[in-house]
Design goal:
five-stranded mixed beta sheet, alpha+beta, Heat Shock Protein 90, 14% strand, binds adenosine-5'-triphosphate, binds magnesium ion, single chain, disordered N terminus
Length: 297
C-alpha cells in the first residue's frame, strides 16, 4: 500500500498520533531553544553589567582621585610650600583628569540621547580631508609615544560631504585611538580615504594590534561592552566609543564595518554615500541601539 493510506481508519489514527507526537516534540524543542537563548542573553547582559560597573567605577574614580589628591596638595601650599615646577605639574595633572571625566560624562550623555532618538546633528558642507588631517596630526604624538607607525593616504579628489565637523572628529578620534591603544610597540596604524564608485567616500583604518574574534566584535559594538575586561581595563576606556561612532556614522547616512581576527589586527571601514538627503533618521532606529527599558522583540 502506498504511503499515506487514505481511507484506512487504523493507519489514519496512527498517522494522527505520530503527527501529534512530532508536533509536541518540535514545540518542546523550540521552547528549549528559546529558554536557552533567553538564558544566554540574560547571562551576557549580567556579565556586561558587572564588567561595566567594575570598569566604570575604575574609570570615574581614577581621574577623580587625581583631582582630589593634587588639588589638596595645592590647597596646602601656604602651609607646605611647593616648588613652582610641582605646582605647574599638579595643575596639568588636574586639568588632564578633569578633561577625562568630562569626556566620559559626555559619552554617557551621548549614548543616552542616541538611545532615546533625541540626538541631532548640525550639518554643513565639509572638506573631509581637513578633518582627517587634523585628527591624524592630533594622534601623531600618541602613536610616537607608543612606537607605532601612523601612516596616511588621503586621495586628493575626495568629494565634499555634508556633516557635523565635531561629530565626524569624534568618530575618527575614537577609531584611531582604539587602533593605537590596541597595537603594541613596533606596530602600524594606517588611514586611507578614497572616493568610491558612487561618488561617496570610504575611509579604512587598519591596525596591526590584538584584533577581535566575531563574538568579540559583537561585544565591542554593545554600549559599555569591552572585550575581555582584564585585557582592556589596563588600557582604560568606558566601552562607549564604537557604539557612539556607529550611531553617529548612521546619522550621517554612512555605514561602519569591522573586519578583524584575534591577533591579526583590525580594519574599520567607514563609508559615506555620494549624495544623501539631510533628513536625519533617529539614531536609535538606524543603529539598533535600544533604550534599556525597551523589551526585546
Ligand atoms: N582596533 C581594535 N583592536 C582590538 N580591540 C578593539 C579595537 N577597537 C575596539 N576594540 C575592543 O572593543 C572595545 C570597545 O571599544 P570602544 O571604543 O567602544 O570602547 P573603549 O575604547 O574601551 O572606551 P571608550 O572609547 O569609551 O573610551 C575595546 O575596549 C576593545 O576591547
Ligand atoms: Mg574607544
Amino acid at each position: 500500500m502506498p504511503f499515506g493510506s487514505v481511507g484506512n481508519p487504523k493507519s489514519n489514527t496512527l498517522m494522527t498520533e505520530y503527527a501529534s507526537l512530532l508536533s509536541d516534540a518540535v514545540l518542546r524543542r523550540r521552547a528549549h531553544v528559546a529558554e536557552n537563548s533567553a538564558r544566554i542573553e540574560t547571562e551576557l547582559a549580567s556579565k556586561i553589567k558587572s564588567e561595566f560597573i567594575a570598569n566604570m567605577s575604575h574609570e570615574l574614580k581614577t581621574p577623580l582621585n587625581t583631582v582630589i589628591g593634587f588639588s589638596k596638595l595645592l590647597n596646602q601650599h601656604q602651609d607646605r610650600p611647593l616648588p613652582d615646577k610641582e605646582i605647574v605639574e599638579y595643575a596639568a595633572l588636574i586639568h588632564e583628569a578633569a578633561g577625562r571625566l568630562l569626556s566620559i560624562i559626555n559619552d554617557i550623555l551621548d549614548i543616552s540621547k542616541l538611545q532615546s532618538g533625541a540626538y541631532t546633528i548640525d550639518s554643513h558642507e565639509l572638506n573631509l580631508e581637513d578633518i582627517l588631517t587634523s585628527i591624524l596630526d592630533e594622534f601623531q604624538p600618541q602613536a610616537d609615544g607608543g612606537e607605532i607607525t601612523l601612516s596616511r593616504e588621503i586621495a586628493p579628489d575626495l568629494p565634499f560631504v555634508r556633516g557635523d565637523a565635531n561629530k565626524l572628529k569624534q568618530i575618527f578620534s575614537n577609531i584611531l585611538s582604539n587602533a593605537i591603544r590596541f597595537s603594541s610597540a613596533g606596530g602600524t596604524v594606517s588611514l586611507k580615504a578614497f572616493r568610491t564608485d558612487d561618488h561617496g567616500i570610504a575611509i579604512l583604518i587598519r591596525d596591526s594590534g590584538v584584533g577581535m574574534s566575531p563574538e568579540e566584535i559583537s561585544v565591542a559594538m554593545t554600549p559599555f561592552g569591552q572585550v575581555d575586561g582584564g585585557r582592556s581595563r589596563w588600557r582604560e576606556g568606558a566601552g562607549l566609543g564604537l557604539p557612539i561612532a556607529k550611531a553617529l556614522i548612521e546619522l550621517h547616512h554612512g555605514h561602519l564595518d569591522i573586519h578583524s581576527e584575534a591577533n591579526e589586527g583590525t580594519e574599520v571601514i567607514i563609508t559615506f554615500p555620494g549624495r544623501h538627503s539631510m533628513t536625519t533618521p533617529s539614531a536609535a532606529a538606524v543603529s539598533g541601539i535600544r533604550h534599556p527599558q525597551e523589551s526585546t522583540p
